[in-house]
From TrEMBL:
Belongs to the MreC family. This is Cell shape-determining protein MreC. Pfam families: MreC. One of its GO terms (biological process) is regulation of cell shape. The gene is mreC. Gene3D superfamilies: Rod shape-determining protein MreC, domain 1, Rod shape-determining protein MreC, domain 2. Involved in formation and maintenance of cell shape. Residues 279-298 are annotated as: Disordered.
Length: 298
Protein backbone atom coordinates (compact mmCIF):
# COMPACT_ATOMS: atom_id res chain seq x y z
CA UNK A 1 0.00 0.00 0.00
CA UNK A 2 2.83 2.38 0.84
CA UNK A 3 4.45 1.69 -2.55
CA UNK A 4 1.22 2.40 -4.42
CA UNK A 5 0.78 5.61 -2.51
CA UNK A 6 4.27 6.76 -3.46
CA UNK A 7 3.69 6.01 -7.12
CA UNK A 8 0.42 7.93 -7.10
CA UNK A 9 2.11 10.92 -5.45
CA UNK A 10 4.94 10.83 -8.00
CA UNK A 11 2.53 10.74 -10.94
CA UNK A 12 0.49 13.57 -9.43
CA UNK A 13 3.67 15.65 -8.92
CA UNK A 14 4.74 15.16 -12.54
CA UNK A 15 1.31 16.33 -13.72
CA UNK A 16 1.53 19.40 -11.52
CA UNK A 17 5.00 20.25 -12.81
CA UNK A 18 3.92 19.79 -16.42
CA UNK A 19 0.94 22.08 -15.92
CA UNK A 20 3.14 24.64 -14.20
CA UNK A 21 5.69 24.49 -17.06
CA UNK A 22 2.99 25.00 -19.66
CA UNK A 23 1.48 27.92 -17.74
CA UNK A 24 4.93 29.49 -17.33
CA UNK A 25 5.69 29.03 -21.04
CA UNK A 26 2.41 30.68 -22.01
CA UNK A 27 3.12 33.58 -19.64
CA UNK A 28 6.66 34.03 -21.00
CA UNK A 29 5.44 33.97 -24.61
CA UNK A 30 2.81 36.57 -23.77
CA UNK A 31 5.33 38.78 -21.97
CA UNK A 32 7.88 38.33 -24.83
CA UNK A 33 5.29 39.41 -27.36
CA UNK A 34 4.19 42.45 -25.43
CA UNK A 35 7.52 43.81 -24.19
CA UNK A 36 10.10 45.61 -26.34
CA UNK A 37 13.58 44.48 -27.27
CA UNK A 38 14.94 45.97 -24.05
CA UNK A 39 12.62 43.87 -21.89
CA UNK A 40 13.86 41.33 -19.34
CA UNK A 41 12.83 38.26 -21.37
CA UNK A 42 14.69 39.57 -24.41
CA UNK A 43 17.75 40.22 -22.24
CA UNK A 44 17.70 36.64 -20.93
CA UNK A 45 17.35 35.31 -24.48
CA UNK A 46 20.41 37.31 -25.65
CA UNK A 47 22.51 36.11 -22.75
CA UNK A 48 21.66 32.46 -23.41
CA UNK A 49 22.33 32.91 -27.13
CA UNK A 50 25.77 34.39 -26.47
CA UNK A 51 26.59 31.57 -24.09
CA UNK A 52 25.87 28.80 -26.61
CA UNK A 53 27.35 30.61 -29.67
CA UNK A 54 30.80 28.93 -29.37
CA UNK A 55 29.11 25.55 -29.28
CA UNK A 56 27.26 26.35 -32.49
CA UNK A 57 30.55 27.50 -34.16
CA UNK A 58 32.32 24.29 -33.15
CA UNK A 59 29.45 22.25 -34.53
CA UNK A 60 29.46 24.17 -37.81
CA UNK A 61 33.25 23.81 -38.16
CA UNK A 62 33.04 20.10 -37.47
CA UNK A 63 30.28 19.74 -40.06
CA UNK A 64 32.30 21.74 -42.63
CA UNK A 65 35.43 19.64 -41.98
CA UNK A 66 33.44 16.45 -42.35
CA UNK A 67 31.93 17.70 -45.61
CA UNK A 68 35.36 18.78 -46.95
CA UNK A 69 36.87 15.43 -46.00
CA UNK A 70 34.06 13.64 -47.79
CA UNK A 71 34.55 15.76 -50.91
CA UNK A 72 38.32 15.16 -50.78
CA UNK A 73 37.85 11.41 -50.58
CA UNK A 74 35.35 11.57 -53.42
CA UNK A 75 37.72 13.65 -55.59
CA UNK A 76 40.65 11.34 -54.83
CA UNK A 77 38.55 8.38 -55.84
CA UNK A 78 37.44 10.16 -59.03
CA UNK A 79 41.03 11.12 -59.95
CA UNK A 80 42.21 7.60 -59.48
CA UNK A 81 39.41 6.20 -61.61
CA UNK A 82 39.93 8.75 -64.44
CA UNK A 83 43.74 9.00 -64.35
CA UNK A 84 44.19 6.38 -67.06
CA UNK A 85 41.66 8.12 -69.28
CA UNK A 86 43.38 11.47 -68.80
CA UNK A 87 46.75 9.96 -69.74
CA UNK A 88 45.27 8.50 -72.91
CA UNK A 89 43.62 11.81 -73.79
CA UNK A 90 46.88 13.68 -73.20
CA UNK A 91 48.78 11.22 -75.42
CA UNK A 92 46.12 11.65 -78.11
CA UNK A 93 46.47 15.45 -77.95
CA UNK A 94 50.26 15.22 -78.27
CA UNK A 95 49.92 12.90 -81.26
CA UNK A 96 47.41 15.21 -82.94
CA UNK A 97 49.66 18.22 -82.38
CA UNK A 98 52.66 16.39 -83.84
CA UNK A 99 50.59 15.35 -86.85
CA UNK A 100 49.32 18.89 -87.40
CA UNK A 101 52.90 20.20 -87.19
CA UNK A 102 53.99 17.65 -89.81
CA UNK A 103 51.15 18.77 -92.09
CA UNK A 104 52.10 22.41 -91.56
CA UNK A 105 55.78 21.84 -92.42
CA UNK A 106 54.93 19.70 -95.45
CA UNK A 107 52.49 22.35 -96.66
CA UNK A 108 55.21 24.99 -96.31
CA UNK A 109 57.72 22.91 -98.31
CA UNK A 110 55.18 22.21 -101.04
CA UNK A 111 54.24 25.89 -101.18
CA UNK A 112 57.91 26.78 -101.69
CA UNK A 113 58.17 24.25 -104.54
CA UNK A 114 55.04 25.67 -106.12
CA UNK A 115 56.40 29.21 -105.83
CA UNK A 116 59.65 28.07 -107.50
CA UNK A 117 57.71 26.32 -110.25
CA UNK A 118 55.60 29.39 -110.95
CA UNK A 119 58.48 31.88 -110.72
CA UNK A 120 60.74 29.97 -113.13
CA UNK A 121 57.93 28.81 -115.42
CA UNK A 122 58.85 25.18 -114.79
CA UNK A 123 56.81 22.32 -116.15
CA UNK A 124 57.31 19.25 -113.99
CA UNK A 125 55.92 16.85 -111.43
CA UNK A 126 56.30 16.88 -107.66
CA UNK A 127 57.56 13.75 -105.90
CA UNK A 128 58.25 12.54 -102.38
CA UNK A 129 61.57 11.07 -101.32
CA UNK A 130 60.87 7.49 -100.22
CA UNK A 131 64.41 6.11 -99.88
CA UNK A 132 68.05 7.06 -99.38
CA UNK A 133 71.25 5.23 -100.15
CA UNK A 134 72.91 3.69 -97.09
CA UNK A 135 76.35 3.74 -98.73
CA UNK A 136 78.61 6.52 -97.48
CA UNK A 137 80.13 7.12 -100.95
CA UNK A 138 76.75 7.23 -102.73
CA UNK A 139 74.56 10.32 -102.55
CA UNK A 140 71.34 9.04 -104.14
CA UNK A 141 67.65 9.08 -103.23
CA UNK A 142 64.55 7.27 -104.48
CA UNK A 143 61.37 9.16 -105.34
CA UNK A 144 57.77 7.95 -105.71
CA UNK A 145 57.33 9.00 -109.35
CA UNK A 146 58.47 6.98 -112.37
CA UNK A 147 58.01 6.41 -116.07
CA UNK A 148 54.22 6.19 -115.64
CA UNK A 149 54.34 9.83 -114.48
CA UNK A 150 56.58 11.00 -117.36
CA UNK A 151 59.83 10.78 -115.38
CA UNK A 152 62.83 9.73 -117.50
CA UNK A 153 66.58 9.41 -117.01
CA UNK A 154 68.51 12.66 -117.42
CA UNK A 155 65.79 14.96 -116.07
CA UNK A 156 66.80 17.69 -113.65
CA UNK A 157 65.56 17.40 -110.07
CA UNK A 158 65.05 20.46 -107.88
CA UNK A 159 64.25 21.31 -104.28
CA UNK A 160 62.79 24.63 -103.14
CA UNK A 161 66.29 26.15 -102.98
CA UNK A 162 67.44 25.01 -106.42
CA UNK A 163 68.98 22.09 -108.32
CA UNK A 164 69.79 19.03 -106.23
CA UNK A 165 70.44 16.27 -108.77
CA UNK A 166 69.46 14.31 -111.83
CA UNK A 167 67.37 11.20 -112.53
CA UNK A 168 69.61 8.30 -113.54
CA UNK A 169 67.31 5.28 -113.26
CA UNK A 170 63.55 4.82 -113.61
CA UNK A 171 60.90 2.19 -112.94
CA UNK A 172 57.18 2.42 -113.59
CA UNK A 173 56.32 4.16 -110.34
CA UNK A 174 59.69 5.09 -108.83
CA UNK A 175 62.97 6.66 -109.90
CA UNK A 176 66.48 7.10 -108.53
CA UNK A 177 68.13 10.50 -108.35
CA UNK A 178 71.87 11.10 -108.15
CA UNK A 179 72.48 14.22 -106.11
CA UNK A 180 74.99 16.87 -107.15
CA UNK A 181 77.03 16.00 -104.04
CA UNK A 182 77.61 12.44 -105.30
CA UNK A 183 81.20 11.88 -106.48
CA UNK A 184 79.89 10.55 -109.82
CA UNK A 185 77.85 13.66 -110.59
CA UNK A 186 78.82 16.49 -112.90
CA UNK A 187 76.92 19.54 -114.12
CA UNK A 188 78.01 22.22 -116.58
CA UNK A 189 77.72 25.49 -114.68
CA UNK A 190 78.67 29.14 -114.68
CA UNK A 191 79.16 31.96 -112.21
CA UNK A 192 76.08 34.14 -112.64
CA UNK A 193 77.82 37.49 -112.16
CA UNK A 194 80.95 37.00 -114.30
CA UNK A 195 79.64 34.18 -116.58
CA UNK A 196 82.82 32.21 -115.84
CA UNK A 197 82.20 28.59 -116.86
CA UNK A 198 83.16 25.37 -115.13
CA UNK A 199 81.94 21.95 -114.03
CA UNK A 200 80.27 21.33 -110.67
CA UNK A 201 81.28 17.97 -109.21
CA UNK A 202 80.47 16.18 -105.98
CA UNK A 203 82.91 14.64 -103.53
CA UNK A 204 83.10 11.95 -100.86
CA UNK A 205 82.93 14.59 -98.14
CA UNK A 206 79.64 15.88 -99.59
CA UNK A 207 81.06 19.21 -100.84
CA UNK A 208 80.49 20.66 -104.30
CA UNK A 209 83.46 21.90 -106.32
CA UNK A 210 83.24 24.25 -109.27
CA UNK A 211 86.22 23.02 -111.31
CA UNK A 212 87.94 23.87 -114.60
CA UNK A 213 87.57 27.61 -114.07
CA UNK A 214 90.00 29.74 -116.07
CA UNK A 215 92.93 30.92 -113.98
CA UNK A 216 91.92 34.56 -114.52
CA UNK A 217 88.19 33.98 -114.00
CA UNK A 218 86.48 36.41 -111.66
CA UNK A 219 85.01 34.35 -108.82
CA UNK A 220 84.32 35.57 -105.30
CA UNK A 221 82.65 34.14 -102.18
CA UNK A 222 78.94 34.85 -102.31
CA UNK A 223 78.68 34.49 -106.12
CA UNK A 224 75.69 32.46 -107.27
CA UNK A 225 76.39 29.42 -109.46
CA UNK A 226 73.76 28.31 -111.99
CA UNK A 227 73.48 25.57 -114.59
CA UNK A 228 74.79 26.59 -118.01
CA UNK A 229 72.78 24.09 -120.03
CA UNK A 230 75.86 23.01 -122.00
CA UNK A 231 75.86 19.33 -122.91
CA UNK A 232 72.13 19.12 -122.32
CA UNK A 233 72.48 17.32 -119.00
CA UNK A 234 70.70 20.00 -116.95
CA UNK A 235 68.16 22.70 -117.77
CA UNK A 236 69.82 26.12 -118.18
CA UNK A 237 69.72 28.93 -115.63
CA UNK A 238 68.74 26.95 -112.52
CA UNK A 239 70.45 27.78 -109.21
CA UNK A 240 73.01 25.24 -107.99
CA UNK A 241 74.42 27.03 -104.96
CA UNK A 242 76.68 29.79 -103.67
CA UNK A 243 80.47 30.09 -103.73
CA UNK A 244 81.86 29.88 -100.19
CA UNK A 245 85.59 29.62 -100.94
CA UNK A 246 87.94 30.12 -103.90
CA UNK A 247 91.20 28.19 -104.16
CA UNK A 248 94.08 30.62 -104.67
CA UNK A 249 96.43 28.35 -106.60
CA UNK A 250 99.21 30.19 -108.35
CA UNK A 251 100.64 29.24 -111.73
CA UNK A 252 97.90 26.76 -112.61
CA UNK A 253 95.91 26.84 -115.81
CA UNK A 254 92.62 26.47 -113.94
CA UNK A 255 91.10 27.27 -110.55
CA UNK A 256 88.31 25.78 -108.51
CA UNK A 257 85.81 27.04 -105.96
CA UNK A 258 83.86 25.39 -103.15
CA UNK A 259 80.11 25.71 -103.61
CA UNK A 260 77.54 25.38 -100.85
CA UNK A 261 74.92 22.80 -101.95
CA UNK A 262 71.24 23.67 -101.87
CA UNK A 263 70.18 20.66 -99.79
CA UNK A 264 71.69 17.60 -98.18
CA UNK A 265 70.30 14.14 -98.91
CA UNK A 266 69.23 13.79 -95.28
CA UNK A 267 67.00 16.88 -95.46
CA UNK A 268 65.23 16.18 -98.76
CA UNK A 269 61.58 15.18 -98.40
CA UNK A 270 59.85 16.59 -101.51
CA UNK A 271 61.37 17.44 -104.88
CA UNK A 272 60.34 18.68 -108.31
CA UNK A 273 61.27 16.72 -111.43
CA UNK A 274 61.72 19.23 -114.27
CA UNK A 275 60.26 18.36 -117.68
CA UNK A 276 61.06 21.76 -119.14
CA UNK A 277 61.41 25.47 -118.42
CA UNK A 278 59.04 28.08 -119.86
CA UNK A 279 61.25 29.57 -122.58
CA UNK A 280 62.38 26.16 -123.80
CA UNK A 281 58.80 24.92 -124.05
CA UNK A 282 57.72 28.08 -125.89
CA UNK A 283 60.57 27.70 -128.40
CA UNK A 284 59.73 24.03 -128.90
CA UNK A 285 56.02 24.68 -129.44
CA UNK A 286 56.69 27.62 -131.79
CA UNK A 287 59.16 25.48 -133.72
CA UNK A 288 56.55 22.74 -134.09
CA UNK A 289 53.98 25.30 -135.19
CA UNK A 290 56.33 26.79 -137.80
CA UNK A 291 57.18 23.34 -139.11
CA UNK A 292 53.49 22.57 -139.44
CA UNK A 293 52.84 25.82 -141.30
CA UNK A 294 55.73 25.19 -143.72
CA UNK A 295 54.40 21.69 -144.38
CA UNK A 296 50.93 23.02 -145.16
CA UNK A 297 52.36 25.72 -147.46
CA UNK A 298 54.30 23.06 -149.33
Amino acid sequence: MALNFQQRNSAFLRRVLLVAFLVMSIVLVAVYAREGESGPVHAVQGAVSNAVAPLRFVGAAAGSATSAAGEGIENATADESTLSGLREYNAELIERYAQMEEYRQENERLRQLLDLKDAAGINGVGARVIGRSSEAWSQTVTIDKGSADGVDSGLTVMAASGVVGQVFETAEHTAKVRLLSDPKSGAAALVQSSRAEGIVRGSLEGLLYLENLDADATVNPGDVVVTSGLGGSYQKGLVIGTVVKVDSQQGGATRRAVVSPNDQASSLEEVLVVFGVGSDESDASSGSSNAGNEGSDA
